[in-house]
Amino acid sequence: MRRTPVESDRKLISILIPVFNEEGNIRRAYEAVRDVFEQMEDRYAFEIIFTDNHSTDASIAIISELAAMDPRVRAVRFARNFGFQRSVLTAYRLASGDAAIQIDCDLQDPPSVFPRFLELWEQGHDVVVGIRRFRQESKLLQWARRFYYRLLKRLSDDNLMLDSGDFRLIDRSVLDQLHLINDVAPYTRGLTSLLATKQVGVAYDRQARQAGVSKFPLGKLMALAVDGLITHSIFPLRLAAFVGLGISLLTCLASFFYIFSRLLFGINWPAGFATTTVLLLFGISLNAIFLGIIGEYVGRIYNQVRSRPMTVIEYSVNVPDLSLGRLSQLTRPYAATSDAADILSRRTETRQAR
Question: Residue 227 domain-assigned?
Answer without folding.
Answer: no
